[in-house]
Amino acid sequence: MPVPVPHQRTVVLPHQAGPVDDARADAARVAGAPGAGDATAQGVSAPATGVDRQPVHSVSQAFQKPEQQSAERRVSADQGPVHQGLTLLLIGEDPNSHVPDMWDWAGRKVRLRTARNLTEAERLLTDDVHCILLDLPPRQPGDRTERGPGHGDTPDDELGMLRDVLRMATSHAVLVLTYETDAQRAADAVRVGAQDYLFRDELDGAVLSRAVRYAVERKRADLAQRQLTESRMLAQENARLERGLLPTPLLDGSNLRFAACYRPGRSRALLGGDFYDTVRTPDGTVHAMIGDVCGHGPDEAALGVELRIAWRALTFAGLSGDELLATLQKVLEHERADDEIFATLCTVDISADGRRAGLCLAGHPAPLLAQAGESPQLLPYEFGGPALGLLPQARWPRRQVELGGSWSLMMYTDGLIEGRIGEGNQRLGQEGMTELVSRQMAAGLTGEELLDASVREVRDLNGGELTDDVAVLLLDRR
Question: At 292, is the secondary structure helix, strand, or coil?
């Protein structure tokens, strides 16, 4: 549609407006005009209310009969919202401020609201405001004192009011209006955070319209860039947490083969608390563990990292079995944010000759053992203890397990067995997982290929991505 030719319009700020005739105000209220007593014709402003003047376009409109206004409202309702363009909020106390008519990029007239101070501005700063025009008062020589409440909070800061506006309107574009003699202050305003500045001496409708559109688009670009930066920083933090959860195993000198698979549940784009670790101590024993902190998110992930690091340190210090788990429970109790948080854990200590292992379970699913020539079987769970953080004086017995000469030991978190089967409520469970892994092993898969294929089939049975994190660890002796 053609863009109307802009013409000059003088806007008198609210506190400079003359009183509205009482009879006309009463008539407007009787007529039910929206904003009666607040909106006026050109050149007349509302009496210091600071409300939006757009709904009533003239004094004659305020005197329309109720049935005429109802008819107009029905037409507006049939045709959709009367105005969907830009809204400009003018903040300033200078009675000589002139704001010409403006149009947005679609040729729609820009709505104007006025406020004398930050108190009024905060009330008028609704979601439909796109840009703020801050009218800075002229600088007085030697005047660097505070201008009063709502006009800057720092006595020696000439841009104090701008800083207040930026804190109040974090998602709105801000333009600064000043005199050409204050060019340095205008430039400082942009440095502080305003999108642009304008000089009163050269202000006209075309310049202001272009500046408002530019400021709005620049603010949108700034917000998009900030969100992108925050997303990248969050991704980097998540990556660091995941590296802490999933460290490089320390198996130098061991003849065991190690493989691991980790699939974070991204349905909520949050980290989980799954973690694992594997180390070999100087006596030749290989220690492996896998655990899961209840819940999702960076707090749970950070707690998982702390538990994993504590486990590695305690293992190298010579602790194992019940003594190690009791110490880890103390770490959890001191570091958790809530008393309801707990963690499950499974630890395995494999002897130097690789034929035996000590197993401790703290509320965690039992590992899966596949010995040479035999089908995979779940290790005994009956002698396990409770999850860490549930019982203050809990005990975790250590059970001896015969591994044999050639074997594969798979440790996993419950995300692998809690996936659904088809569209019903049936879960895969440990038996379903055992059958699934048996088929994969019978097909000749080993190491990471076995883990990837197993997790992929579990996900397919679930009908999509799993809602919980999945961590799987595999140790082989051939």
Answer: strand
In angstroms, the CA 456 to CA 155 distance is 65
Give the whole-angstrom CA distance, residue 181 versus residue 434: 81
Is 289:276 a contact under the CB 8 Å cutoff?
yes
For residue 328, which amino acid is it? Answer: L
pLDDT at residue 94 in the model: 58
d(CA 156, CA 411): 65
Are the beta carbons of 154 and 167 closer than 8 angstroms?
no
3-state secondary structure of 198: strand
3-state secondary structure of 95: coil
Place of tokens 């201008």: 147
Is there a contact between 464 and 265 (Cβ–Cβ < 8 Å)? no
Per residue in 312-327, pLDDT (tens digit) is 999 999 999 999 999 9
The DSSP line for 376-439 is: -EEPP-TT-BPPBTT-TT-----EEEE--SSEEEEEE-GGGTS-B-TTSS-B-HHHHHHHHHHH
What are the residues whose beta carbons fall under 8 Å from the beta carbon of 37, sequence distance 6 or more?
20, 25, 28, 29, 46, 47
Residue with structure tokens 């009463």?
Answer: 26
Residue 94, C-beta contacts closer than 8 angstroms, at least 6 positions apart = 13, 135, 137, 138
Please tell me the distance from the alpha carbon of residue 37 to that of residue 262, in angstroms, as a whole number: 67
Q: What number of other Cβ atoms are within 10 A of residue 156's Cβ?
A: 9
Q: What is the DSSP string of 268-280?
A: TT--EEEEEEEEE
Give the angle subtended at the CA of 136 by the CAs of 131 and 140, to the nearest 5°: 175
Q: How far apart are CA 458 and CA 426, in angstroms?
A: 13
- 399 contacts: CB under 8 Å, gap ≥ 6: 358, 359, 360, 380, 383
pLDDT digit string (tens) for 201-211?
Answer: 777 777 777 88
- CA–CA separation, 112 and 94 (whole Å): 16
Q: pTM of the predicted model, to two decimals?
A: 0.56
pLDDT > 90? residue 451: yes
Residues β-bridged to residue 88: 112, 131
Helices (H) and strands (E) in the chain, counts: 11, 15
Burial class (CB in 10 A: 0-12, 13-18, 19+), 442: exposed
